[in-house]
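Protocol step 4 of 6: structure prediction from sequence.
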Amino acid sequence: MKNIGVLISLLLFVHVPEVSWGIKDQTDNPTQQPTQVLIVGLHHNVKSNYYYDDMIAKETGMQADSIDHHYNRIIAANIVSATPNGAYRFITATEQTCLKVTEKIAVHGEGESCNSDLNKVSQEEFQQLLNNTHAEYLLVLNQHYLKWQEKPMRTLFHIISYTLYNKDRKQVYTGNQFFTAMKLEPAERVTQISRKSSSKIATSITKAL
């Protein structure tokens, strides 16, 4: 009986430190907060080789003076929802919060050959926007280009041009993605058919970071 009591005591002595060590590991490794990427869309960035604003408004049900707002909001929301977890988090802010920066962003080219620059945006203005939104990167939706083609098949290409900037206003990545439709669609339908392309934008950005 005496030997059994000694054995039990030894087992307890060995087991207790193991449990304490496991609790300590969880306390010393808190979950790291994701790096935030602010998405902004530019004003009057919906262009086309065929459609004009009143035609777009009539076919989609959008207001002619807010077409850019609707398309930018759709793509930005899809990008945000494409990456709910991970090391990077995409966020949006009100247009008024971003206006001082977005109104000074220059866009060059159209469609697949579109790009932007921040040469007219001061470092102070840029840093203030990032600070106000707790972001470390800025993702600019440069242009939403509606390219209509008749042949070989009647198709509408929605080409999304985008550029990523770091906190020093330097381009980190620029590219474009597209999705197709047979005609102009209302906002709800555009939201659905653009999800895959929006997800690819999110993936390309996270890979570049």
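Step 5 (inspection) to follow. The longest strand covers residues 137-149.
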